[in-house]
Specification:
The chain is an alpha+beta fold. It has one helix spanning 14-32, and strands spanning 3-8, 40-45, 52-53, 56-57. It has a domain at 1-34. Helices cover 29% and strands 24% of the residues. The strands form 2 sheets. A two-stranded parallel sheet has the order 1-2. Strands 3-4 form a two-stranded antiparallel sheet. Helix 1 (14-32) links the parallel strand 1 and strand 2 (40-45).
Length: 66
């Protein structure tokens, strides 16, 4: 069962998540021969202050829908 974990900052809409799930699933079915019903996509939102890069805490990006 292909499992895809996506770590990202909060702020995406449910429609954006749905679109990502559909496109990743399509790619794994088409390119890797996965069964559509076996593809699992998991989103993990990283809250501000829970990650850093280059010695500094990451802040969430601003999206057009905010």
């Amino acid at each position: 069962m292909p499992t895809v974990l996506i770590y990202w900052s909060p702020g995406r809409t449910q429609q954006q998540k749905n679109d990502v799930i559909a496109e990743i699933t399509d790619a794994l079915v088409k390119k890797a021969g996965a069964k559509r019903e076996d593809v699992l996509v998991i989103f993990q939102e990283i809250q501000p202050g829970n990650a850093g890069r280059g010695g500094l805490p990451l802040t969430p990006p601003k999206f057009d829908n905010q």
